[in-house]
Design a protein that fits this description.
Layout: H1 12-24, E1 45-46, E2 68-72, E3 78-80, H2 82-86, E4 91-98, E5 103-114, H3 115-122, E6 130-135, E7 140-144, H4 145-148, E8 154-159, E9 162-163, E10 173-175, E11 188-194
Parallel strand pairs: 1-5, 2-11
Antiparallel strand pairs: 2-3, 4-5, 5-8, 6-7, 6-11, 8-9, 8-10
The structure holds ligand MTE and molybdenum atom (MO).
């Protein structure tokens, strides 16, 4: 378990209660859904709204100051400015959001830069096995390189045709459609390729290391 002594401006009560839920296995249904037959994974309920979840800090980065560093075990590390994002081929994908706190939201149309395109530019070295996302609010989360390389993963600038708002992680957030939404880092500022896995903010606090909603991998 992580030591929360120096979380600074994040909301310690919220973090504490989520850690307790993880310990107690809150919301675990042990039920099943079949992705071939069902659209809603076990224990989820459909919402029409779009809840905002974060650590209580919503960083606002002017586009002229905004940078995205892509580094670690890659052949061609990069620091992208906003103009570099705009210069990449556009990618779109429609997917359902499943948040571990049990809400799901269908048919989110994301637009941005595909992970596969990014990978083709930076070229991970053979030792690279995992990816760590670092965000402007100090949040981190980790995924396997294989999961990042799935065809539906992207760095999103737009949601349903509109630029992603600050509260939802704009100007740029990661979208990992196959995992619970905590893997989709808002306000991403660094994508780091590493050999050894490194648990992120919630993964250190009792969440599952992967987070497949169909297997109800809420807590680890
Ligand atoms: N940078 C950052 N990304 C984050 C979080 C966060 O606190 N900071 N929270 C995660 C969690 S737990 C969820 S459910 C989703 C919420 O995204 P939303 O506010 O757009 O619904 O963002 C994820 N990405
Ligand atoms: Mo979440």
């Amino acid at each position: 378990m992580a030591d929360d002594g120096d979380l600074g401006s994040v909301r310690p009560k919220l973090v504490e209660s989520k850690k307790r839920w993880a310990r107690e296995g809150r919301l675990l249904t042990g039920g099943t859904s079949d992705p071939e037959r069902d659209r809603l994974p076990p224990g989820q309920r459909l919402v029409e709204t779009w809840p905002v979840l974060d650590l209580g800090v919503q960083p606002e980065i002017p586009l002229d100051k905004w940078r995205l560093t892509i580094d670690g075990l890659v052949e061609a590390p990069a620091v992208w400015r906003w103009a570099d994002i705009l210069a990449q081929p556009e990618f779109e994908d429609v997917s359902d959001i499943h948040c571990v706190t049990s809400w799901s939201r269908y048919d989110n149309r994301w637009r941005g830069v595909s992970a596969r395109h990014l990978l083709s530019l930076v070229r991970p070295k053979p030792e690279a096995r995992h990816v760590v996302f670092h965000s402007y609010d100090t949040y981190t989360t980790n995924v396997a390189l294989d999961a990042f390389a799935e065809e539906d993963v992207l760095l999103a600038t737009h949601h349903d045709g509109e630029p992603i708002s600050v509260e939802h992680g704009g100007p740029l957030r990661v979208i990992m459609p196959r995992w619970y939404f905590w893997k989709s880092a808002k306000w991403v500022k660094r994508i780091e390729f590493v050999a050894a896995d490194r648990p992120g903010f919630w993964e250190e606090r009792g969440y599952h290391n992967e987070g497949d909603p169909w297997q109800e991998q809420r807590y680890g």
